[in-house]
Each structure stands twice: as C-alpha cells, then as structure tokens.
Amino acid sequence: MRLFLAIDLGDAMRREIGAVQQRLRDGLGGWRWIDPRSIHLTVRFLGEVAPDDLDRQLPAWRGAAGCCSPARLRVGGLGVFPARGTPRVLWIGVEAIDPPGAVEALGRFFERAARDLGLPPESRPFRPHLTLARAGRHGRPAPPPAGIVGDLGEIEAREIVLFRSELLPGGARYTPLHSFALG
Asked: Residue 170 is part of which domain span?
C-alpha cells in the first residue's frame, strides 16, 4: 500500500481552494489542476508499506501525534516549486498561528518517528503547503502573478490522518485508514 500522513482540510476550506483554482485556471495555462476534494497538507510521505509493517508503525504515528498540540492554521498566499527555474508545483501556503511553528514541529516529530522505524529520511526539507496544480506534460506552466491569492482563512488541525494513495488513470484516490489525535 502507498501511504502518507496528512492534515485533512475540511469541506469549507476545500470549497475556498476550489474557488481559487477556478479563478486561476483562466489566467494560468500549462497546469494540471488537482481535484479540490483531494487537497490535504502532507506531513510525511511513507511510500509503499506492507500490511504487516503498517501494524508495526501505528503506535509510532500515534505517539508522534500525541507529542503535538492541536493548532490553528492560516491558509493563503501562492507560490511555486522550485522557486527558481521552470515551476513544477503550484501551491497555497499554510502557517501555524496558534501555536506558532506547530506545523513545522509536526513535520519534525513525524520525521523522527519515521527514521526510528527505519524509513529513509525525506530528501527535501518540510515546507507546509497545499498543492493546487502540477506542471502539465506538454508546455511550460505560467507562473502566478505576485499577490494574486491572499488570506483564505483558518482551519483547526486536531488530528493526523493516515491515507492510502491509489494512482488511477483519472487521478489519485485517497482513502483514510486511521486517524491520530493531536495532543
């Protein structure tokens, strides 16, 4: 099973993000847009995990979640990865406002738990974001103008969800398997 750990956004924020995507579609060519129902804040990608290994991992994920308090997160601002050169990912930013730094702390706790389980370390630093679109297969995606997306509001992060990811011809399908309460 292909798995990852994430913060679910809730329906209201997904609707806000869908409205932003709709506004951006007309002016930004070259992007493949993510279905807003699939958008989440990935905390740690786990990759392929055997069912027996999953049973062994669950206590570690529960423990990592228990080390972090629930948090209020602000969603807004637009950016691309990589920051220089041809953009491949278009994203909206996420920042913890109460307590400050909570999202980065989650990333550290789950990374430490993953390494303790023997998973390979993440190759890139953790940067909290919500992926809106990926570069299309043909052509060069248009970078967004600065300041085009402002503050979309806040969400409450109260749990981490373990998702199964299935890559299908029509796009990825994410199925929640377990949830771990924060705090």
From this structure: 2-181
